[in-house]
């Protein structure tokens, strides 16, 4: 092999490309100036990773732990607590439907089913074959008087009923 040539990596053995280089490192530095400790910047640091990679792998968590001086287990505990952090690749549009009791009584399950059908995702947590949609159920979104509330990416939409779902999905195509 000539000097400088790179062998094709085997699946699962690809060299890890750090997130916190260049612009992302600058952004992290700026974020850190706004927090009293490095640990306090954990949530925005994880956002930077998700913006860069689309989801947060175990290796990403280890990198965040390293740059913030935390343990990987601590970072994983935070990532797994919040549904907005993706632990696997998801569709371009991430749909979160509240199915906690007050919304459930008002028909949230039918809203979930309508999203699974209209997007082609078919199953909760799965991604549609076109890679555009992932639908999950979440706990109370804080809009119990406006069942059923839905988050599509960063858009908060209240009073969603099954008959409104097709139009919503079309809007995001
Ligand atoms: S129970 Fe659905 S928003 Fe609170």
Structural features, described:
This protein has 173 residues and is an alpha+beta fold. It has two domains: 22-81, NADH-quinone oxidoreductase subunit E (Arc Repressor Mutant, subunit A), CATH 1.10.10; 93-172, 3-Layer(aba) Sandwich (Glutaredoxin), CATH 3.40.30. It is 42% helix and 10% strand. The chain has helices at 22-32, 42-53, 58-68, 72-81, 101-105, 108-119, 162-172, and strands spanning 93-98, 133-138, 150-152, 155-157. FE2/S2 (inorganic) cluster binds next to helix 5.
Give me a quick take on this structure.
The protein has 173 residues and is an alpha+beta fold. The protein has helices at residues 22-32, 42-53, 58-68, 72-81, 101-105, 108-119, 162-172; strands at residues 93-98, 133-138, 150-152, 155-157.
Brief descriptors of the model:
173 residues, alpha+beta, Arc Repressor Mutant, subunit A, Glutaredoxin, 2 domains, 4-stranded mixed β-sheet, 4 strands, disordered N terminus, binds FE2/S2 (inorganic) cluster
Write the layout of secondary structure elements.
Layout: H1 22-32, H2 42-53, H3 58-68, H4 72-81, E1 93-98, H5 101-105, H6 108-119, E2 133-138, E3 150-152, E4 155-157, H7 162-172
Parallel strand pairs: 1-2
Antiparallel strand pairs: 1-3, 3-4
Helix pairs in contact: 1-2, 2-3, 3-4, 6-7
The structure holds FE2/S2 (inorganic) cluster.
FE2/S2 (inorganic) cluster binds next to helix 5.
């Amino acid at each position: 092999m000539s000097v400088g040539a790179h062998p094709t990596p085997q699946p699962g053995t690809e060299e890890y490309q750090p997130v916190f280089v260049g612009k992302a490192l600058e952004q992290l530095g700026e974020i850190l100036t706004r927090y009293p400790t490095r640990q306090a910047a954990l949530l925005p640091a994880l956002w930077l990773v998700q913006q860069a990679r689309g989801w947060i792998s175990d290796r990403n968590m280890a990198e965040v732990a390293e740059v913030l001086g935390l343990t990987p287990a601590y970072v994983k505990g935070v990532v797994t607590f919040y549904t907005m952090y993706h632990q696997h690749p998801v569709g371009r549009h991430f749909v979160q439907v509240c199915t906690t009791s007050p919304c459930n009584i008002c028909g949230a399950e039918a809203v979930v089913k309508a999203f699974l059908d209209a997007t082609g995702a078919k199953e909760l947590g799965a991604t549609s074959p076109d890679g555009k949609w992932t639908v999950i159920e979440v706990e109370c979104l804080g809009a119990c008087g406006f069942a059923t509330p839905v988050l599509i990416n960063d858009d908060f939409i209240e009073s969603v009923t099954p008959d409104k779902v097709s139009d919503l999905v079309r809007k995001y195509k």
